[in-house]
Please model this.
Amino acid sequence: MVRIANALGLVILSVALLILSLISYVSLRKDSFLSSSKYDMGGPRIMFHAGFRSQFAMNFLDPSFIPLTNALNEELQGKPSKWKFNRTAFYLQRKEIFHFIDIANNFSLTKNGVRVGQLMHFDYSSNKYVFSISNNFKSLLPDMSPIYNKHYNVCAVVGNSGILTGSRCGNEIDQADFVFRCNFAPTEVYYKDVGRKTNMTTFNPSILERYYNNLLTIQDRNNFFLNVKKLEGAILWIPAFFLHTSATVTRTLVDFFVEHKGQLKIELAWPGNIMQDVNKYWKTKNLSPKRLSTGILMYTLASAMCEEIHLYGFWPFGWDPNTGKDLPYHYYDKKGTKFTTKWQETHQLPSEFRLLYKMHGEGVTKLSLSHCA
Ligand SMILES: *[C@@H]1O[C@H](CO)[C@@H](O)[C@H](O)[C@H]1NC(C)=O
Ligand SMILES: *[C@@H]1O[C@H](CO)[C@@H](O)[C@H](O)[C@H]1NC(C)=O
Ligand SMILES: *[C@@H]1O[C@H](CO)[C@@H](O)[C@H](O)[C@H]1NC(C)=O
Model:
């Protein structure tokens, strides 16, 4: 009996495998059909690529994206860019943002603003999750907001989209007075495209888990130490109270910084529960995703510190609007990494993009999508 059952199991397994391989064969064929048809037709290549791929993207991403493609095509064709800054419109937006959130004050918790033993909650988690403020944590908080009374002329906010690969925008980005980056993105081997300067980067505590093995070995700790050291002089903006899943790694991070106090000349900023207020502003622009992207959050912060904001690396689609070629999700993804749409579960990057593009059209901010001169 047992033998028969085993043999039967084997047969069922083989049939299942056969069906699976048939399915993947068919979907492979479908992909190659789609990709060959998009390259074989004639016509003005750039226009065609962008238009066609946008329609292609539309099916999977966001129906509201499609009316944008003609304007986008014209914009990309019309080099040099005819973008003009409208300071009035930018100031108007800043005033509207200030109506919902006091950015200078809400940029970071401060020593005086918390007490040891206080239970913090998380913006995006159930209220049952808490984080108790420890002496160590408190000791890492700034005495006052690191951006209090700080004003810069032109700021660059650099998103991590694969569109930066080969953009040669590094010089232009470095010319900004203050450069914002997202999620501790590497710059070292990408200088030409993304620049060298970093004046502030966000650091989601989960980065320790994903890239530094929770600092469990000496090598992990050294790696992390050296990578933070490279950012000396910059602000590390650590959203520890957005998601309860950060709680454990936040303790690891706090211990690390307490241990290395004095050895790392980096300014730490720890925002509290600010997302509700930030969301309120963007909701007035009909943007209300489950979670805003780090990029648009940086833009929100920058609006209080900068006289003019230029955006780079904001492009949430898996194809280059200039050439139609496939793009990886991040500029630092390894070659061959495919664009993924995992973010769709929580983010609405295409809607964010559409809004930023609209702001670009109104002269509120400059959105760079083509290669830099
Ligand atoms: C600049 O923006 C303001 C406010 O949105 C608007 O009234 C004005 O017409 C804009 N100016 C130009 C030149 O577009
Ligand atoms: C934001 O700033 C205001 C004061 O302007 C303060 O009352 C509030 O508690 C701050 N919120 C957070 C989350 O830091
Ligand atoms: C920004 O960072 C660069 C180094 O990356 C530094 O030289 C520059 O002084 C910083 N600017 C400001 C305004 O802090």
